[in-house]
Amino acid sequence: MPPTEATPARGRWYDWRMDSLLARAGDMFDRYADALVAAKGLLDGRFAEAVRVVAELDSILIVTGLGKSGLVAQKAAATLSSTGTPAAFVHPVEALHGDLGIVRPGAALLALSKSGNNEETITFARQFKTVAAAAPGGGTEGKVLSVSEPGSRLAALADVALEIPALPEIDAFDLAPTTSAATTMAVCDVLAILVQQAKGLTEHDFAKFHPSGALGRRLLLSVSDLMIKGDALPLVRVDAGFADLVYRISSKGIGMAIVVEATGDHVGVITDADIRRLLLRGEPVGDLSVAECFARSRRGSESSAPATVRGSTSPAAMAIDCLAQMQGDQITELVVLQGNRPVGVVRLQDLIDAGI
Length: 356
Fold this sequence. Notes:
Layout: E1 6-9, E2 12-15, H1 18-41, H2 45-55, E3 61-65, H3 68-82, E4 87-89, H4 92-95, E5 108-112, H5 119-134, E6 143-148, H6 153-157, E7 160-163, H7 179-198, H8 203-208, H9 214-220, H10 223-226, E8 235-237, H11 242-252, E9 256-260, E10 266-271, H12 272-280, H13 290-297, H14 319-329, E11 333-338, E12 341-347, H15 348-353
């Protein structure tokens, strides 16, 4: 446990008191907030031009940066790619030792640098234009977009120079890239989302880029992907006997049977819990048909319900919608209908197991 009072820390006195720590932490968050407001104040027509350039790219967007700016650039490339803009991070030093081979006609470069005076990044940007112009079918210089403090050498080289505010970092020595990293990341994030909007991409497009993620599963999985179907479906006709009903429920292993007319049209469901209730009431179940078991197993308002399950759905329905329906109706299984014929059953447990 840390001391609770001012104590020596690496040769200096440090105030460990909670009120002091929280006050300083709060001040740092305030400085972050002020920096983002200041970054907003720098918005002008150049930002609109940057959105246009990236949105109209017919090739890859290369993102670069050195040090902490390089880490922000990696995140920016990932965000751009996941929102519909093909992007790749290239280290400026590695670029000057062969990785410029990634440049293709129509490519653009997004260069990040706090000061904008980093030699490696500037050299990469300059060489990028040369390689883009020389690429087969190139013809014109590749566009360079920069994000740096105002008045930098990198900004002077760029075709579109976006700016971050020249503010102190939050550490006492004004050395650790904190404020500058946050504002640079914010500029890149806003750029990526505005480009996504300019391209008219939807949440379903986003999900296609994240098929294994929670969002992808929620937006891409349909009922047909998860439902029990075919021979595993526990169908029983209304004119069948009680023994056949019990066999269907037990042999298919999902605790229910789907009752259908002789034509195959859906009537309803009978669960193993319904059978137990009939037995507890002393009903002569052995002498009852499936139709009679179904009628006598209805409870309360269900007794006057039409011969369809309130929670029926279709194979094309989205799995996430089924989950919401189950939660709202407090049920654990849904019959899947095509027309009025049962083609499947989707269970709450299957939705949960799929990560919906």
